[in-house]
Design goal:
10 strands; DUF3515 family protein; signal; DUF3515; two-stranded antiparallel sheet; 8-stranded antiparallel β-sheet; alpha+beta
Length: 164
């Protein structure tokens, strides 16, 4: 028979392990309700002002997905749905590229496909905006952003070769 102190230590270790797993699960649930983590890009004062106008005009729904908060909360970011479609305003403008370029609802977008999502960056708009669209969704949801993003200044650059 084992010594009572050994049994208590084993029970204590098992209890602590269960508590750690429960805390991890609770943390994951809490984080999912807090919204996706998005790092706001560094911006100039003018870019911040322009982005704040745009983010105030963003719709409550994109592609039928409800808007949600982001972590940290910022006037430079937005998100919709779960998995989240995310937006960051004030990112670096893309230069000339051979990446696919699409015109959707008056906004030109350069696309960069990834493993689980596609990153779209406005082209010919300042400040630039990036939208990350999970593979679960159709990129046509970008059309819902056209009215708000139409308030961004034009640089004169536009898509010449359109993606197919």
């Amino acid at each position: 028979m084992r010594h009572p102190a050994v049994l208590r230590a084993g029970a204590l270790a098992a209890g602590l392990a269960a508590l750690a797993l429960a805390a991890t699960g609770v943390t994951a649930v809490v984080r999912s309700h807090l919204g996706p983590g998005l790092t706001p890009p560094p911006v100039t004062a003018q870019e911040r002002t322009d982005c704040e106008v745009v983010t105030r005009l963003l719709p409550d729904q994109v592609g039928g997905l409800d808007r949600r908060t982001t972590r940290p909360q910022s006037t430079l970011t937005a998100a919709w749905g779960d998995p989240a479609v995310t937006l960051r305003c004030g990112v670096r403008e893309p230069g000339p590229t051979e990446a696919d370029c699409y015109g959707i609802d008056g906004i030109d977008w350069v696309s960069v496909p990834g493993d689980t999502s596609t990153l779209f960056v406005t082209y010919g708009r300042r400040p630039a905006v990036e939208v990350k669209v999970p593979g679960d969704y159709d990129a046509q949801l970008l059309a819902d952003l056209g009215d708000a993003l139409g308030h961004l200044g034009r640089t004169g650059a536009e898509c010449i070769i359109r993606g197919g």
